[in-house]
Amino acid sequence: MKVVKIILWIVAILLVAIVGWLYYIGFFSTLKVTEKAVGPYTLVYEDYTGPYSNTGPVVQAVFDRLAKDGIKPIDGFGIYLDDPSKVKASQLRSQVGCVLADKDLKAFKKVAKKYKVLKLAKMMGITTEFPIKNNLSYMIGPMKAYPAIMKYMTEKKIANEQIGTCLEYYDMAGMKITFVFQLKGKH
User: Which of 3, 8, 157, 176 has the CA that lies 20 to 30 A from 46?
Assistant: First the structure.
């Protein structure tokens, strides 16, 4: 009987620890979805085709290449071009890389020809944010953010045709991921 009690206490402590950890990383958080202006952004990127969950090493490769050229951006991004519910994972297209800060633009001009660059103008978007606590945040964030944005679009009667670029902005200073669905025709 004593052994059963000890096992139950261990299981209870483990469950409390797991629930506490999931709470800490934002698993139980309710996301606030808003419409707001974002950008402009200067993006240095690589094209990637394959599962969106495998884009991390591509982002890191862009960071590493820029660092070799003396540019040290802080923030990353991903533009996701296909709907994973409609396109095979192996065929999903994205553009992923780094966001250049204004302070880096002058130095970047010297090496810009070696890179793919995209300038996103200021745009209105449907946005939500998710905290970055650890590497799991990059998996849990989309699991929480996209359903919240879809619910908002349904409630506001925003059609898929009104949506443009789907952007994830990895704000390392603010330790958050901002999810943005561009609203076409709104600036």
Answer: 176
Please check whether residue 12 is in contact with residue 101, taking contact to mean a CB–CB distance below 8 angstroms. no
177 touches 141 (CB < 8 A): yes
Residues found in the chain: 187
Apex 178 CA angle, 133 and 110, nearest 5: 100
For the entire predicted model, the pTM comes to 0.88
First to last CA, the chain: 68
Backbone dihedral angles phi then psi of residue 158, each to the nearest 5 degrees: -95, 120
- Residue 134 exposure: Cα atoms within 13 Å on the Cβ side: 8
Give me the residue spans of the domains in the chain.
Answer: 1-29, 34-183
For the stretch 109-159, pLDDT in tens is 999 999 999 999 999 999 999 999 988 898 899 999 999 999 999 999 998
What superfamily would CATH give domain 34-183? Regulatory factor, effector binding domain (3.20.80.10)
As a whole number of angstroms, the longest Cα–Cα distance in the chain is 74
Q: What tokens appear for 165 in the block?
A: 């670029």
Cα 141 from Cα 31, distance rounded (Å): 10
Residue 179, sorted as left (phi over 0), alpha (psi -120 to 50) or beta, turns out to be beta
15, 97 contact by CB (below 8 A): no
